[in-house]
Write a structure and sequence with these properties.
- The complex is a heterotetramer, with one copy of chain A, one copy of chain B and two copies of chain C.
- Chain A is built from five helices and eleven strands, in the order βαββαβαββββαβββα.
- By secondary structure, chain A is an alpha/beta fold.
- Chain C is α+β, with helices and mostly antiparallel strands.
- Chain C is built from two helices and three strands.
- Chain C has a three-stranded antiparallel β-sheet.
- The chains are: A alpha/beta, B alpha+beta, C alpha+beta.
- Chains A and B meet through helix 1 and strand 6 of A and helix 7 and helix 10 of B.
- Strand 2 of chain C pairs antiparallel with strand 2 of chain D.
- The complex binds adenosine-5'-diphosphate and magnesium ion.
Chain lengths: 232, 722, 84, 84
């Protein structure tokens, strides 16, 4: 199994994510420069957190045109593997239209960094199958533009297909509609989440719920022929 | 003219033996500005101890470096951005962050943490929120966690806020770089952002009082670009691996008129640059403007001739500018050429460090001073007794200076890089792990100006001790100091006196702990027509946590743990927050610090932590004993039954040095006593951890209520919309 | 080639909540600007563009605004041209 | 009372660095919009305002723009009124 962590100018969680996959979980992982387009050799592609292109104009608005993101279209179309966007990565995926909706300025208009509680809304997915349905988990967030919004019909679809994976529990830190914190696409191979699993993957930093998310993806990939991933 | 004094101009004429050109005058104006030359402070800074067995790089480079363990070293320094922040809080603070990051980068270190110490007036909402937003904007985007600092609200800072930022970097011993140019024929590269008309004369601006004219003749506000800065960090760390890299230096205040000259001075060589090679942001900039520009996110590199392309390629890959703008020459001059013509040529020795030192004499304040008289009596009595301790405690917790700064640090990304084991909010110092190592690094920064206003010498001592206390509280051994000295106009003999006294105090304390000052910064002219700031030394410190698992928490750990005060129960409590809040009195007499006791305390506390005997520890500082206890409750949600007989306000809320509140597990009382007695330090049983409220002498207050008070402290300032 | 001063005005879609606009409106009212309503905060992107005709310029700007300057999910835009 | 549609256009001052403008310009060029220059990204604030006269409206808006909507140290603004 081989994983890629994409590096855009301005990415700043690339090394953190690489450390969890490569050093903690022992997955063969490459840091992949944003200009690279041959991504087929990877079973897992992570778009890490940070401020690609400074988040100028809108978070993800410039990065979405990067060659590597363009290449993702085909990668997803042929169900080659799993794509995970964390925080800024999530923003890039929505801007690119690879995930529905948009991530806008926090309702407070301020950046917010804290650990939040999340509720597992669907545990039958590659990202969440190590959690119980309805389980409350803890993960850090750190973003200024994490308020998820989408047209009513999109929200309907997300609910119908159970594409909403995590919601903020108790406090809704950024004002996301329906407290949405993580979603996936129809194919069940593209995932976006605002919380940072890589920041809670060691005992030093708390529950370790973050590590479970990476472990879930890896087991999923190991157990299923990457070419025909279970979809949900 | 150009902010040069008569005497300085004379010196230039004499040493140059001719009239300087306009451009040369510009060069002198910047290199000889207080900000860049330290002409008023040098002779006093010499008093600070700088040697130590762990010191790899002391003052004189862009940052200091100390060795930690297993070849790992930390580079750290603090820098002020007071005047720019007073003019434009958001960008002023943001570029302050950017500047200090590049100082750390210049040492070849990866920046791993930021801290900021801020001082505002009691009503300065816009400055406060603007500065915080600016720090968040820049720090969050460059991906360096902001893990600590402190904030005071005090009238003295109303017209002249203080924004001091400290950056800490990590490097291996072998990766250490210097800001040096050497080897005739080697190339000088300018990398990063393009050069524009930013902040021209910023350094001279920082070297005058912030009054009428100065306030008006603002340089163009410098706008920071954290995105470019992030790319600059990554690209620069990449080229730091190239053996052809000889030296590098950030462009700070002074821009191209100072940086190359400083590098040449260190290398004992000269440098010639060609103006037309410099990538510009706007055409039609004059050579004068180009040299004096303070555009951000730029660095100068000296590289082996022939290897230029290798370096340029890396910066281009990161979307940055990189151009060969000059070369190292044998003649020890800074030569500036424009289209083949030499438009400036000044001896390096004259330009760098050639400025005549200012020798005005410090003199102690006359008794006629309106400032709080150090000998004023402690006005106890009036009001005392009327208030029950829970009410007083709540009121203190609600003051912005003591209360929670959550609203601030939750806007800072303090967990990026996944090393933050102890972040902001609930501890005396932050603790970072080093991936793959057992040890950790503790960092802290702060300083109490009111103490220095009353007694700069004692205040200087306390500034250093406070840093030591903060590190020791988390179980860290102090390794080295960086400092930022914020003062008013140094041509005022009383200001200079306070400056000297503060440094003497800091030096005295540092010697007692055998701690070196490895870097720092001086910021003068912090005053307006109405007000001078308090003499305010900010002390930043780095500490060594031998085993990260043995770090000590601040909050109460378990029900039943025994609570002790280590240190004196009584003392003089001038300068305390209590006097300020309840008597609106900023004076009083300071209890002198006994450095022998401090030394012993340090040893005892470290030994206790080392043996895992401390269930929790917290130093007693602003707000005194009861506030320290309350903070331990707030941090943990656990209450305590306290047994104090003397309930005088002075005992409960007074501030004097050398005190910790610690807890130990039942059964470990004797072990504690042994170490503390052995150190010859007084100590006292305070009570037992337990319940959900603080109880004492029949009165109590719920921890929840303490939390509510504590967390509401900043509301008054923030709520003052807009 | 003619040169144009281009202004692209980007606004949150009318049917969407605009928290920033609300915050600004509250502040304006506090500052004494009564009788203010429906405040929206958007972006103003200005630049110079060389093109053969206003027509051509407008088309090319529309294309870039469509796919880049505005996010159709949440924003709408308008274009203003001024020949220099 | 008349009602006006007010537009306040806020831009970074010409001499100051506009990193956002730079990044946006680079992206536009990469996306094929050649011949573009001097890109600046600013704010667009729109709202409805009731006032006795256009004159009065303009004055009050100017005051609020001055002290709140724009930061005179780094930004300049212009006001557009349209009677409804
Ligand atoms: N108060 C101080 N204590 C110790 N060292 C200091 C102090 N002030 C300045 N220095 C040292 O003097 C040198 C010049 O400082 P500074 O001009 O702030 O550097 P830079 O231009 O890189 O910001 C640095 O090596 C700095 O560490
Ligand atoms: Mg420097």
């Amino acid at each position: 199994m081989r994983a890629a962590v994409v590096v855009f100018p301005g990415s700043n969680c690339d090394h953190d994510t690489y450390y969890v996959l490569n050093d903690l979980l022992g997955i063969e992982t490459d840091l992949v420069w944003y200009r690279q387009t041959d991504v087929d050799r990877y079973d897992l592609i992570v778009l890490p957190g940070g401020f690609a292109y400074g988040d100028y104009l809108r978070a993800g608005a410039i990065a979405r045109f990067a060659p590597v993101v363009q290449a993702l279209g085909e990668y997803i179309a042929k169900q080659r593997g799993i794509v995970l966007g964390i925080c800024n990565g999530f923003q890039i995926l929505t801007e690119a239209g690879l995930l529905p909706g948009a991530l806008t300025k926090n309702i407070s208009q301020r950046f917010i960094c804290k650990t939040v509680q999340l509720r597992v809304e669907n545990n039958a997915t590659p990202l969440t199958h190590l959690f119980e349905y309805g389980q409350i988990i803890n993960l850090p967030i750190a973003h200024g533009e994490g308020r998820y919004i989408a047209p009513a019909e999109t929200l309907e679809r997300l609910k119908r297909n159970r594409q909403i994976l995590l919601t903020y529990h108790g406090e809704n830190p950024n004002g996301s509609v329906d407290a949405i914190a993580a979603i996936m696409d129809e194919t069940g191979t593209v995932f976006g989440m605002m919380p940072h699993p890589e920041r809670n993957s060691e005992r030093l930093f708390g529950s370790g719920d973050g590590l479970k998310i990476f472990q879930a993806l890896i087991r999923e990939l190991a157990s299923s022929e990457p070419s025909n991933l279970r979809t949900f | 003219m150009h902010g040069l004094s008569e005497k300085e101009y004379e010196t230039i004429l004499k040493r140059l033996g001719r009239q300087p050109t306009e451009v040369e005058l510009g060069l002198f104006a910047l290199n000889w500005s207080e900000h860049c030359s330290y002409k008023s402070s040098k002779r006093f800074l010499k008093l600070l101890p700088t040697a130590g067995k762990r010191v790899l790089q002391g003052p004189g480079e862009n940052a200091g470096v100390v060795e930690v363990a297993n070849d790992w070293c930390v580079a750290f320094k603090v820098e002020s951005h007071n005047h720019p922040s007073a003019v434009e809080p958001f960008h002023g603070a943001a570029t302050g962050v950017g500047g200090i990051i590049r100082d750390i980068l210049s040492m070849g270190a990866r920046p791993i943490a930021l801290l900021d110490s801020l001082r505002f007036g009691e009503q300065s909402r816009q400055l406060f929120t603007g500065v915080v937003a600016g720090i968040a904007h820049y720090g969050n985007c460059v991906g360096i966690p902001t893990v600590g600092g402190d904030i005071y609200f005090e009238e003295a800072y109303t017209d002249n806020c203080l924004v001091n930022v400290m950056c800490v970097g990590l490097l291996k011993r072998s990766e250490l770089k210097r800001a040096i140019a050497q080897g005739v024929g080697n190339r000088i590269l300018l990398v990063g952002a393009r050069t524009g008309r930013d902040g021209i004369h910023g350094a001279t601006f920082a070297s005058e009082d912030l009054i009428g004219e100065t306030a008006k003749k603002r340089p163009n506000v410098q706008v920071g670009d954290p995105f470019t800065a992030k790319s600059l960090i990554e690209a620069t760390l990449e080229v730091c691996q190239f053996p052809e890299l000889i030296g590098l230096q950030d462009l700070g205040a002074g821009g191209l008129s100072t940086a190359p000259a400083e590098m040449a001075a260190r290398g004992g060589v000269g440098i010639a640059i060609d103006i037309e090679e410099i990538p510009l942001r706007e055409e039609s900039m004059t050579p004068y403007e180009i040299l004096l520009s303070e555009s951000q996110e730029r660095m100068v590199l000296c590289v082996k001739s022939g290897s230029e392309q290798k370096f340029i390629r890396v910066y281009r890959k990161w979307g940055l500018e990189a151009a060969v703008i000059g070369e190292v020459i044998a003649e020890r001059v800074y030569r500036v050429r424009h289209e083949g013509r030499t438009i400036a040529e000044v001896p390096i020795e004259l330009l760098v460090g050639g400025v005549p030192e200012v020798d005005s004499f410090p003199s102690p304040p006359s008794l006629a001073l309106s400032r709080p008289n150090p000998l004023a009596p402690f006005p106890l009595g009036e009001g005392s007794g009327e208030r029950s301790w829970p009410a007083s405690l709540k009121k203190l917790l609600q003051t912005p200076t003591i209360g929670s700064k959550r609203w601030v640090w939750e806007q800072y990304d303090h967990t990026v890089q996944t090393n933050t084991v102890i972040g902001p909010g609930s501890h005396d110092a932050a603790v970072l792990r080093v991936k793959g190592e057992r040890f950790g690094i503790a960092v802290t920064m702060g300083g109490n100006g009111r103490y220095c206003q009353i007694d700069p010498y004692e205040g200087g001592i306390r500034a250093v001790c406070e840093g030591v206390h903060n590190l020791v509280s988390v179980g860290a051994e102090p390794l080295g100091i960086t400092d930022c000295l914020n003062f008013a106009n140094p041509t005022d003999p009383e200001v200079l006196w306070a400056f000297e006294q503060t440094i003497k105090g800091m030096a005295e304390a540092a010697r007692a702990f055998e701690l070196p000052f490895v870097s720092g910064n001086v910021s003068f002219y912090n005053q307006s027509e109405q007000r001078k700031i308090y003499p305010t030394p900010m002390v930043g410190m780095v500490g060594f946590v031998r085993d990260i698992e043995k770090r000590v928490p601040m909050g109460f750990a378990r029900e039943g743990d025994r609570i002790y005060l280590v240190g004196k129960l009584e003392g003089k409590s001038g300068g305390s927050e209590y006097l300020k809040v309840f008597y609106n009195f900023g004076g009083g007499e300071l209890e002198p610090t006994d450095l022998a006791v401090e030394r012993a305390l340090l040893q005892a506390m470290l030994a206790l932590a080392e043996r895992g005997l401390l269930r929790s520890a917290h130093d007693v500082s602003e707000g005194g004993l009861l506030v320290a206890l309350a903070e331990k409750s707030i941090a943990s949600g656990l209450g305590a039954q306290l047994e104090l007989w003397d309930l005088s306000e002075e005992t409960l809320f007074g501030e004097w040095p050398s005190r910790f509140v610690v807890t130990v597990a039942p059964g470990n009382e004797d072990a504690l006593k042994e170490f503390v007695e052995g150190a010859g330090v007084p100590y006292r049983w305070l009570g037992v951890v337990g319940g959900d409220s603080l109880e004492m002498s029949g009165e109590k207050i719920a921890v929840q209520e303490l939390v509510r008070a504590y967390e509401s402290a900043l509301r008054g300032i923030i709520a003052r919309e807009p | 080639m003619k040169e144009f001063l281009v202004r692209v005005l980007v606004e949150p879609k009318p049917d969407l909540l605009d928290p920033q606009g609300q915050a600004v409106e509250r502040a304006m009212i506090e500052l004494g600007l009564r009788n203010v309503s429906q405040t929206r905060v958007g972006k103003l992107i200005t630049f110079k563009l060389k093109a053969l005709s206003a027509q051509a310029a407008r088309e090319r700007v529309a294309e870039i605004a469509q796919k880049f300057l505005a996010n159709p999910v949440i924003e709408r835009y308008s274009i203003e041209l001024e020949e220099l």
